[in-house]
Amino acid sequence: MKHFLLIPVLLLLAACGGMPMSELPTRLNPLPDHLPPMKAFSATTPQISRVRANSDIARDFLELTFEMESGRAIDRMTRFEGPVTIALAQPVSPQFAADLAALLVRLNREAGIDIHQTETGKPANIVIQTLPRRQLQATVPHAACFVVPRVANWDEFRQNRRSGKLDWATLEQRERATVFIPADVSPQEARDCMQEEVAQALGPLNDIYRLDDSIFNDDNINLVLTGFDMLILRVYYHPSLKNGMSRAEVAERLPDILNGLNPSGRLPHPDRQEKTPRAWINAIESALAPRVPRTLRLTYARKALKIATDAGWHDNRMGFTLFVQGRLALGIDGRTAVDSFTRAYEVYSDNFGTDDIHTAHVALQLAAFSLSQGDTELALRLINDSLPSVARSKNAALLAAFLMIKAEALDFEGRPDQAALVRMDSLGWARYGFASDEDIRARLKETAALRPRGKPPGVG
Known about the structure:
Blueprint: H1 12-15, H2 54-65, E1 84-88, H3 94-110, E2 115-117, E3 126-131, H4 133-139, E4 146-149, H5 154-160, E5 177-182, H6 187-202, H7 227-236, H8 247-261, H9 278-287, H10 294-310, H11 316-329, H12 334-352, H13 357-372, H14 376-392, H15 396-412, H16 416-433, H17 437-450
Parallel strand pairs: 1-2, 1-3, 3-5
Antiparallel strand pairs: 4-5
């Protein structure tokens, strides 16, 4: 089940004790009547970001495979046997079809799974059905998208949702599953849902917050299947493993499997990361709950931060905790917001460097604030450091947001020709990353409002 933590360009002026929103400058660049064509990413393959000890991967594999997100244990492994078929329930956009085709190529090549698409509307092992977001969330309010076993369509899901038929832990073998994705979202959000839910239909059902280079993580930093994820799926479908195996039986076989598939992981020093405590998970999920008052969500974020601090974390979980607290503090406690983003940036950059997707998510907030303060030098440095990792991670919404801020910074510095080129580039990516042209134009207005009046020192 995928939960979205959306990362918009936030109007940090209002959050940081600057001008009230009603006094924001209204000077805007003319908004285009016609947006440029949608841009899409090339079919590059995300690489494994770092070398892991195979003993650590085995630990992660067991936790991913034999536990649900709730922490409930699964007593046996299940997967599809033989070739796997996947079908769309109804016709979809050309971009969605292309994204699905690219995913299947990767699953065959990188995960070694024999999976292929069959005719739209016909039965298959995995069916992808799209439906209006309102309809989906009226039934499952907290999910952006999800996958369930043993059903073939939405009506069958609704008829059985209160029965034990949809319980993954009762399966003996996977034979049929349906992925439900909102139809009225951006191409990127539809792709992200498809990536994670198809992967969970095939393999692990759990998400682990400590995994910094995986889509199997509810922080939603990684949006497409990573090299690590493909390795996990390759292990999942290794011929040495079978349906019905217990955790102990799988654990016994993992060292040989991983040493064969991942020889660079024969490291003598594992990371020894401990399992994330349920108290922190509960606090951070309460902080992310969409229908809870923001002040209460901020209280939960502070609780999560205390747990992380007491545990002595300095990993991606600490960075994420600070990032969540910063977002929730916007408009409530501006000093806390900026301090949280600054500390999150330090934690992420210490762990991953400045050219990393984790760091980039926080850099967006800091760049927006820097622009609002007229510090375009810092804003441009944060943006330029982040752009390569954002492109590698295939996050078009984040890429468009960075480029919009960069265009405003260049305009403020008196470089309108460069700004116009960057702004046009941002719009192509925004067509993929945002849900509608209206959303794109609204984002342009918000970003333009960040730019201060006047000109920076030294600009005539």
